[in-house]
DNA sequence: CTTGATAGTTTTATAATATAAAACTACGTT
DNA sequence: AACGTAGTTTTATATTATAAAACTATCAAG
């Protein structure tokens, strides 16, 4: 695949920032990317001119620009699933007091596109715009469990099962077995596999063609996940998932295979 | 300012998309930017490799990638004003039934970073991630009215007062007079200046240093803006604005000048 | 106050890359 | 089957991105 080195370098600059690294000096940027400082300077000024990078007037440090937010919301802002699901997440959060999420698959990761905080915010990991591994999260499992064998093979080729907690699945065999359980039950669970002390129940969302393109999940502190709670919550989340899918045009009665 | 042509070109590709143009063919992209199709192809493939552009497998058309959403939320996700204001927007919307917005200044435009729909969604213009002119909107006026004369001069140098509706202010003199009224009242109004049939009340939000860095607004259909409604709503929105500013560390009592 | 180190910005020669012409593949229409 | 258009690939070379060098600015140490 053809690659333009200077564009590649500019976009790598954008990749340097994260939740904890919100600003960087030019010397740090050139050091991390092994670039000459005048090259880094030119790249930064081009990004800045377009609004993708901003420079703090007082400290001279660089940070991500708001143009990313503007353009980013164009991607997600017109997704039907987001506006339709929103109401349901709000309702479920009010009914249960727990945190709800909406996630879509992007490549071989989930991406949080909505989140409704519960009354006591205990979920730390999730954040709109953040990515989440498919093997260690309820939403990740729900997103890929119903893919065709060919699609699943493509997604999992070369996939690395990084350990997130002591309970994370770390090999493909166990992961495939778990996906089988997801298909049987119709929902996914992650018991502290992604975030210690947090358990999530996730339901796939289908589009008008019956394909799973999103998932919703409810997250809670593990001690709250009693058998009784599971029996109460799963039907509620499933019901919300079905309504969201139907509002997206999914017609389950036509699914004869 | 040094500019790297190929990075500039790549970012211009990202600018081609908008709310109505969500996908484009490679020939259209090369035509619009007056680029050779093989140049466009190389640029697109580099953007795609980083996730900033996606290609539809069935149609071959290009669209903005989710990496923009991810990076964009890094910019805004850690802004205190957003999480603090959120609660107040929700409360005001529940109390009044109207749509509330949170906007920050980015260059010489406002940028919507949060929105809470009222019970009857009548505001069409605003959308999270969208930009809004400062001269024709309540939030825009609120954002710039309290700038120092030097800052205001810098913002307005070369500024073009595009007509948005029949009621838009279209020259600097009238705009500066209007900003004076905003300073006197402590809030801004746009009477159908930005969107026909919609009136907005906006309040500036100050940070811990007393600088206006954001604004909130309540929007309603113009017929609902009776004198009685104004008398009722302005104090509520002002109160919310003051609490949000205080929660951001603003201390009004220290403002002796 | 001077000196030295480091960071950031600018200049410019040239090595390296981006560019676009040409060629190729694929698809749809006539 | 032929033609036109879209999309992708190849490759020669014109053009640009690159980085060395120089400059400016700031800060800390002596």
TrEMBL record, chains A, B:
GO molecular function: DNA binding; DNA-binding transcription factor activity
DNA-binding keyword on record: yes
Domain HTH iclR-type, residue spans: 4-66
GO BP of this protein: negative regulation of DNA-templated transcription
Keyword terms of this UniProt record: DNA-binding, Transcription, Transcription regulation
Domain IclR-ED stretches: 67-250
Pfam families reported for this sequence: HTH_IclR, IclR_C
General function of this protein: May be an activator protein for the gylABX operon.
Database matches in PANTHER family: HELIX-TURN-HELIX TRANSCRIPTIONAL REGULATOR, ICLR FAMILY, HTH-TYPE TRANSCRIPTIONAL REGULATOR KDGR-RELATED
Protein name in UniProt: Glycerol operon regulatory protein
UniProt gene name: yagI
